[in-house]
Task: inverse folding
């Protein structure tokens, strides 16, 4: 089941490999709830009577069970459907078959994992020097990395010390400059002469 498509990995009497998910209302319900669903007559069921699968393909009967992992992850559904409605259906055979499918999938997964492990072990043992040589190389790489990291930290500390010293010198120069400007402003203030609106200096008595 994808965002827009429902894939049919195996089917009997229905010659489709996929269909739009917009047609999969009933399958969506099974995936969402992780519970079996039985619809004896879809035309009489207000939930699904307007489904494209019912209106366009005349499906009347539908029964499905989830194919799910032990932790509740739904991988798909196992479903049967027909254009003829039913009055009763025993869902247990579908439940048992879905369980058999999950058992098969778990065994297939375990075999695949075992093959990958054997392939990895073979590749490691066939490598020049074997696994011990790789471990020694790894230890050497780690020691080199640690050494380089220590040198980097020392260099950074030296650079920080030089930067602090330079900042101290600049701060002292800026402070002296501010004091000089303040003295100049003070002198200019004492030498200011007031001028009247007509541009003449006032007469002081």
Result:
């Amino acid at each position: 089941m994808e965002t827009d498509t429902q894939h049919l990995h195996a089917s009997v009497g229905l010659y489709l490999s996929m269909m739009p998910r917009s047609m999969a209302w009933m399958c969506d319900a099974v995936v969402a709830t992780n519970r079996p669903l039985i619809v004896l007559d879809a035309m009489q069921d207000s939930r699904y009577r307007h489904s494209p699968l019912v209106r366009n393909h005349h499906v009347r009967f539908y029964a499905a069970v989830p194919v799910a992992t032990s932790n509740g992850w739904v991988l798909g559904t196992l479903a049967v459907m027909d254009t003829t409605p039913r009055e009763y259906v025993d869902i247990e055979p579908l439940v048992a078959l879905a369980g058999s499918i999950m058992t098969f999938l778990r065994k297939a997964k375990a075999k695949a994992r075992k093959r990958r492990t054997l392939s990895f072990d073979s590749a490691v043992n066939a490598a020049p020097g074997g696994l011990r040589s790789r471990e020694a190389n790894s230890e050497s790489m780690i020691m080199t990395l640690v050494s380089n990291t220590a040198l980097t930290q020392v260099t950074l500390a030296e650079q920080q010390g030089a930067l602090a010293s330079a900042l101290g010198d600049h701060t002292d120069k800026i402070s002296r400059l501010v004091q000089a400007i303040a003295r100049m402003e003070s002198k200019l203030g004492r030498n200011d002469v007031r001028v009247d609106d007509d541009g003449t200096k006032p007469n002081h008595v």
User: Anything to note?
Assistant: The mean pLDDT is 75.
